[in-house]
Design a protein that fits this description.
This protein has 230 residues and is mostly helical. Helices cover 67% and strands 0% of the residues. The longest helix is centred in the C-terminal third of the chain and has 28 residues.
């Protein structure tokens, strides 16, 4: 599996390949999904390189406001693109200081989970249910783009770790083509962009996603019943 530094370098060189565009918000959600996958699946024996970065950014910004590192960088940058590239500068400084001063890594969610039950964790089943009820808790804000990036990051962690897809994950793979067919779009746009295009804003698009996803799952169940009866 690639280490985080290698992945970040690839994202910096070709952000479109991973997160569609140079955006600090998309990067933040993508990394949340990726790091959650790496740790929850037991694919690393060490804390993440990002441990302590949020606190470091708060100290640099001289703020006590509970804000993510992405929010802090964006606030001082003026645009998603500028903030995206500034992140790499800030993170590089953070790593240099961390390595030189031996910053004690925080014992938070980015620590290794020894419990093998985490290998059975499935984001498409458990987390989607949680996001539907409390999107702010998982995404920060109700945003279909953030959801898409979170799922992309998590899926990448699974692929790099050689973890075979679960049944809900395999089922989700067909959602993209189903959305394209439903809206009659063959442009190669992601499911999140298609839904967002037909919505007022990110909030409405996220709500619409869950409605469409439920419709998609019910349609699959109906097809299974028909096949079994036939």
């Amino acid at each position: 599996m690639n280490d985080l530094s290698t992945l970040l370098q690839k994202i910096k060189e070709n952000p479109v390949m991973f997160i569609d565009k140079p955006s600090i918000t998309c990067l933040h959600s993508f990394l949340n999904g990726y790091l959650s996958g790496v740790i929850r699946l037991g694919l690393t024996q060490e804390g993440s390189e990002t441990d302590g970065f949020n606190e470091w950014m708060q100290e640099r910004a001289k703020t006590n406001v509970s804000q993510s590192w992405a929010g802090i960088i964006l606030f001082g940058s003026g645009s998603e693109r500028t903030a995206f590239y500034r992140f790499f500068e800030e993170f590089d400084q953070f790593l240099k200081q961390k390595n030189s001063s031996k910053i004690q890594e925080s014992e938070d969610v980015f620590k290794l989970r020894q419990d093998l039950s985490f290998r059975q964790f499935d984001i498409y089943d458990e987390i989607l249910k949680g996001i539907k009820k409390r999107p702010g808790m998982f995404l920060g804000t109700s945003s279909i783009t953030k959801l898409d990036m979170l799922l992309r990051g998590y899926s990448l962690a699974r692929r790099e770790g050689g973890i075979p897809p679960t049944e809900p994950e395999r089922e989700f793979e067909g959602f993209q083509s189903w959305i394209q067919e439903k809206y009659g779009i063959n442009s190669g746009q992601s499911w999140s962009k298609i839904i967002l295009f037909y919505s007022v804003d990110e909030y409405e698009a996220l709500q619409k996603f869950f409605e469409l996803f439920e419709e998609y799952l019910n349609r699959n169940k109906s097809l299974e019943v028909d096949e079994n009866c036939g």
